[in-house]
Design brief:
Blueprint: H1 18-32, H2 43-50, H3 54-66, E1 70-73, E2 77-80, H4 85-109, H5 112-131, H6 134-150, H7 155-167, H8 173-178, H9 182-186, H10 188-198, H11 201-220
Antiparallel strand pairs: 1-2
Helix pairs in contact: 1-3, 1-6, 2-3, 4-7, 4-11, 5-6, 5-10, 6-7, 10-11
Length: 224
């Protein structure tokens, strides 16, 4: 086991709720593969990269451990929990059962103003993809889909989906950035906003289903 190498991690100088913001960034680093199984990560080292004290980082890592995303290595630090191909398939199957119909419900209930609020976040996803900023990409992507599904009014479903998405691994994202593919896929979020504004439930349901297919077959599978 080796100490984590330097990663591109965001600054929290202008953010509030430091523990939650650190947890969000670390969760995105796990999902994107920036933090890898087999490496040992210590709170002081990560804190130095974030530019914060070790306490909120240690608390955030413990939060992720409760969610099953990392494991505590006594007196040493944390390791990312491995996820098998079979587990990824199961996560994807559950997401396909939940997210497309929930998105359709959101389209039926949402107003054009709701879509307008989501559009800047969709653009942030596209911008992060173009810049190759995978952690910002994952953070914005998770927030976008949570807000989209929240328009359907089922808060419990949104929490379940957020947990499923956090457990997904997208190890192939960096390869898609190198091949210039991620930006075109990211633009699907802008199309989702168009379907939402038009109240086109069927089109949004179809696109969300296809989008989840990218996650499993291209994004998670690209590095395998």
């Amino acid at each position: 086991m080796t100490e984590a190498v330097s990663m591109t991690l965001p600054s929290f100088a202008q953010r509030t709720s430091l523990r939650e913001q650190v947890a969000d960034a670390l969760r995105a680093a796990v999902v994107s593969g920036e933090m890898k199984p087999g490496n040992l990560y210590s709170a002081p080292t990560l804190a130095a990269q974030f530019g914060v004290s070790a306490t909120p980082v240690r608390e955030a890592m413990l939060d992720l451990a409760k969610q099953g995303l990392v494991e505590v290595v006594p007196n040493k630090g944390f390791q990312v929990t491995s996820v098998s191909d079979a587990e990824l398939d199961q996560l994807t199957e559950i997401r396909l059962l939940l997210e497309p119909p929930a998105a359709a419900t959101a389209a039926r209930k949402a107003s054009p103003a709701d879509a307008a609020v989501l559009k800047p976040l969709a653009q942030a996803i596209v911008d992060a993809a173009a810049e190759g900023d995978l952690i910002s990409y994952i953070e914005a992507d998770h927030e976008f889909h949570a807000r989209l599904l929240m328009l359907g009014g089922n808060r419990r479903l949104v929490e379940i989906v957020k947990d499923l998405r956090a457990r997904t691994r997208l190890y192939g994202l960096s390869g898609l950035v190198e091949r210039g593919i991620l930006t075109s896929t990211a633009s699907e979020h802008l199309t989702m906003c168009e379907h939402l504004a038009a109240g086109d439930a069927a089109a949004l349901k179809h696109l969300v289903r296809a989008h989840i297919g990218h996650v499993r077959h291209e994004w998670a599978g690209a590095a395998r």
